[in-house]
Amino acid sequence: MIDPNILRTDPDRIRESQRRRGESVEVVDLLIEADLAKRAAMQEFDELRNQQKVLGKQIGPLQGALKKATDEAAKAQAQAEVDALMAQASTLADD
Asked: Where exactly are the structural domains of the chain?
């Protein structure tokens, strides 16, 4: 097992080890590329997770505001219906 810290800090040491064993040195370069890609992906993941947390904190108050707006709109609509029915009742009473 290759220690990722040694791979990052001293890749030539790993290459030399590969040469002594008669193994491919290209594997070291592939491992370095894979490690860089993994670290970049993890960093992007962390950034996206932080954005998600920020947005999550913003959603709660917005949902409350939306419910309040919906309740107010429903109240206004109900009041309009009551007013219309009272107007109809008033018209019928006059007849």
From this structure: 4-68
